[in-house]
Specification:
about 325 residues, alpha/beta, N-(1-d-carboxylethyl)-l-norvaline Dehydrogenase, domain 2, 2 domains, 8 strands, about 50% helix
Length: about 325
């Protein structure tokens, strides 16, 4: 297929190479001209020195050229950048696959819902997403990886799965598009908490509890969005949560560790050098939870640290001194 790829970050580069290796003609567009130029001239992403781009991947500075003749449109911009980029597209000529993760402030919309809002309900059958436990550098090194494809339309869902699947990147179809999108958004917040725990050297017991109770928060709030709570037990929920909470390659996890080391949120973001989606999603998740009376103690604790109301150690103490209730799953 002819694939238009919107975005030039590390995740976009990894997925674009998978598609090119699978025989698709991929054209990448983004707002970072210097990154696109580096990929085109040097044959590698500036963040992945030595990992050569596939010959089937090329770049362009013109959105119109990227979209020309596209049979599949991929998206890997930031969650905040999704709405502005979609507004530039107009009527989409082909299925749109969302790989960004987040919850929109004020509206509480997940990213597929933003696409519906911008592109119109008539585009519903063309909107899908790809999510799951997939660290970009490991995908580029062709380490065995599994992910999930979802869409409002079953045929589009299977098209996404078929386009990506190969002998190292396995993509399972899942019809619960909002559940798939929700797990990917919320896990970044819990990963920040996990990084804080490791930064404070609290050990594996603490981290296991944080991940487990974090999954419980994701499951509870997913019901508000009409998602199937069981989706959170799959690759786009538990799977993505585990890798994001455990991997040094996870920017949200590393962000949490930097907060535990005493850096301010702004200093930590600068040190990471890339968007930390968990920090962007935290306020919108709290807003959505409060509107629907869903308690999210871990998410609230992370928000308090990000807003400077609590130090990391104080946030952990707050969680440990909450009233003990019967475990309910």
């Amino acid at each position: 297929m002819r694939v238009a790829y919107l975005g030039s970050g590390v995740w976009a580069y990894a997925l674009a190479n998978v598609l090119a290796q699978n025989g698709h003609d991929v054209v990448m567009w983004g707002i970072q001209r210097e990154v696109l130029d580096h990929i085109e001239k040097e044959g590698e992403h500036p963040n992945f020195r030595g990992i050569r781009r596939h010959s089937g991947l090329r770049t362009t500075h013109k959105l119109e050229e990227c979209l020309d003749g596209a049979e599949l449109i991929m998206e890997s911009v930031t969650s905040k950048g999704l709405r502005p980029v979609l507004k530039q597209l107009g009527k989409i000529p082909a299925p749109l696959v969302i790989t960004s993760k987040g919850i929109e402030m004020d509206t509480g919309n997940l990213l597929p819902e933003i696409a519906l809002d911008v592109l119109g309900y008539e585009s519903r059958g063309l909107i899908g997403c790809l999510s799951g436990p997939s660290i970009a550098v490991e995908v580029l090194h062709k380490m065995p990886t599994s992910a999930v494809a979802s869409a409002y339309d079953a045929e589009v869902m299977h098209t996404i799965s078929s386009a990506f699947s190969n002998d190292y990147f396995r993509v399972y179809p899942n019809r619960d598009i909002l559940g798939v999108a929700f797990g990917g958004a919320m896990k970044n917040i819990i990963a920040i908490a996990s990084g804080i725990c490791d930064g404070l050297e609290y050990g594996d017991n603490t981290k296991a509890a944080m991940i487990t109770r974090g999954l419980h928060e994701i499951r509870k709030l997913s019901r508000v969005k009409g998602a199937n709570p069981e989706t959170t037990n799959g690759l786009s929920g538990l799977g993505d949560l585990i890798v994001t909470c455990l991997s040094d390659q996870s920017r949200n996890y590393r962000f949490g560790r930097l907060l535990a080391d005493g850096l301010s949120p702004e200093e930590a973001k600068k040190h990471i050098g890339m968007v930390v989606e968990g920090a962007n999603t935290c306020d919108s998740a709290v807003q959505l939870a409060e509107k629907n009376n869903v308690p999210l103690p871990i998410t609230l604790a992370v928000q308090a640290v990000l807003n400077g109301k609590l130090q990391p150690k104080e946030a952990v103490k707050m969680l440990l001194t909450r009233e003990i209730k019967e475990e309910y799953l």
